Amino acid sequence: MRARSGAMELIGALMVLSLVAIAAAAPMLAPHDPTRAVSPTYGEPAPPSRAFPFGTDELGRDVLSRIIFGARVSLIVGVAGMLMTMTIGVAIGLAAGFFRGATDFVLMRFTDVMLTLPALLLAMALVAVLSPSLINILIVIGLVSWTQVARVVRAEALSVSQRDFVVAARSLGASPIRLIARHLLPNVLPLIVVMAALSTSGTLLLDAGLSFLGLGVPPPTPSWGRMIQEAELYFRVAPWLAAFPGLAIFYAVLAFNLFGYGYLRRQRR
Amino acid sequence: MLAYILRRLVFGAAVLVGTSIITFVIAFVVPADPAVTIAGAKADPQTLAMIRTQLGLDQPVYIQYARYLDRALHGDLGRSYIMRDSVTKLIAERFPATAVLALSAMVLSLALGVVMGMVAAAYKDRAVDHSLLVVSLALISVPVFVLGTMLLIAGGLYLHSFPLGGFSDARSLIFPTLTLALGSGGYYSRILHTSLAEVMGQDYIRTALSKGLSRRAAMLRHAMPNALLPLVTLAGLDLAGLLSGVVLTETVFNWPGIGRLAFQAIFNLDIPLIMGTVLFSAFLIVIANLLVDLLYAWLDPRIRLGDEA
Fold first, then answer.
1. What is the count of residue pairs from A and B with beta carbons less than 8 Å apart?
2. Selected residues 246-285 of chain B with any CB under 8 Å from a CB in chain A
């Protein structure tokens, strides 16, 4: 069954690639300007038609074009938020697992405290205070999501640093930086790949949630989460306004999850 | 065992103090002036000064924190700036709605997770296993507010006279419960699947199988009790999270719980209420951690006697 578990990872990777392609080629792919009224039905959402396959919103904007451009914000936030999360989490996890003792104790007790704070509430409070801009949202996402990464990386670093080749390198007088960079990191890397994929999907979910609550990247940049929030008034009359962006978020999150879990499954064998 | 319990209690209390410090620091750096929040932007300087004195905002930070901690230990989390009511009372009023939703969501998640996880493990590496993997990943990948919104849309289109928001009767519980439970049920099934596969590979299971026990009996009676442990930890913490309010689901379904209270507090920059809801949530998580640790120690003597302790 090796082939099948590899297939999951491959499908995930292809889905991610398709998102990247859509985001990169958005101006060429989108049939209309996402921020302008292009339909004569201004003032009322129009259902999907031949001219507008995903329909138009209450301002006469093309939903398909907005979703295509929304891929840009989602991918940038997803990947940059993941980098933020991974940088903090991997640094703290490696330091705790490698140095052990007092360093480990202090870092892990701090992690315990951070784990008790509700991530979404904390993120909402921070974004509300800092005002929602792209960079603030990325910082907040990093600040509230690194704890899991730190814990997992620490456990792995702890076990790797007790293996013979690390002990041997240490006894040969290798510096801590060399030990971490040359011996620890390469062995923790497969785990980091899994955590990176899963943290990207986590970031996408968190960012979509924040956007849905009105705390996402400010208008007019189209964002999938905010499109759903704006569609709330038209649930009964225009369900397509929420359904298509909802599918888009689902597709993106599923892409990274398939890749992450597929990779994890293959590593375990 | 007593020494272990005491150690966990001290640890839990220390974590809560840490949480309260972080919450306090965040609240302190908020640029909004509480006196202005209370009296309005047009208030004269004397009124503002009076309010600051009344709230103790003219004191040094550490004194403010000590006072806050002292009051919090007596169950007083301060007064909401906007709702002009005690924070403890506001949270207590919203708790029943949140608790009902949390419990029903947890029951359904566990049922889903255990059934899906067990079936997947029983048919390991066969088509059923692979399909369940894809199904659970799909469930995990749907954001709760998207699922909730879709249920609302479907309900609005096909189920007339069905309650589509608010907390009225048992029927109004169905959509929010499904919204919360499908994703975590999918996640639980993955966790159980992994731990079952691990336990099924252990020697005592091989012994049970070699003495002629069927795979099904070995899994149900010998492997499940051990395989459920990671799920118990996770579910315990998740229950604490659910009990402290679920912002997104409560927002979608207009559910009168703590999550929406916290949401309003954040939008109004109502600092005592924000701190109160965050601390309440942290308190529940610490309690859940403690209970899970004790349950573990009771189930597995290696933990309370081992070098970890």
1. 126
2. 247-248, 251, 262-263, 266-267, 269, 274, 277-278, 281-282, 285
